[in-house]
Amino acid sequence: MKTKEHPKQVRDKVLGKYRSGLGYKKISKTLNIPRGMIKSIVKKWKEYGTTTNLPREGRPRKLTDQARRALIREATKRPKVTLKELQSSTAEIGVFVDKTILRHELHRAGIYRGVARRKATD
């Protein structure tokens, strides 16, 4: 998974150097960009004929990585916290989501809500 997208000017510089005959390693050293990134820029250009950002498939996630980590941290720290409380804590961060989304994210992280029932005493 690539962590950041480079500006169009940088990608065009990479292609210019590639077209002039430089290899991935030399381009990587001169522009201070990882060789794998150079390779993926050139591959994208060969495949699609463009260096612009292509549209992604699917709906983007509502929770950012930072908000998701905060949600998981809060849920593991306080196991009996309700989804409503988690919803208000994510709203404090600035991310407004429904409780079902929170539940889905917690399930993806392997955290399942629920409190054990008390045993009836006779």
Automatic annotation (TrEMBL):
<dbReference type="Pfam" id="PF25787">
    <property type="entry name" value="HTH_SB"/>
</dbReference>
<feature type="domain" description="Sleeping Beauty transposase HTH">
    <location>
        <begin position="1"/>
        <end position="52"/>
    </location>
</feature>
<dbReference type="InterPro" id="IPR036388">
    <property type="entry name" value="WH-like_DNA-bd_sf"/>
</dbReference>
<dbReference type="InterPro" id="IPR009057">
    <property type="entry name" value="Homeodomain-like_sf"/>
</dbReference>
<protein>
    <recommendedName>
        <fullName>Sleeping Beauty transposase HTH domain-containing protein</fullName>
    </recommendedName>
</protein>
<dbReference type="InterPro" id="IPR057667">
    <property type="entry name" value="HTH_SB"/>
</dbReference>
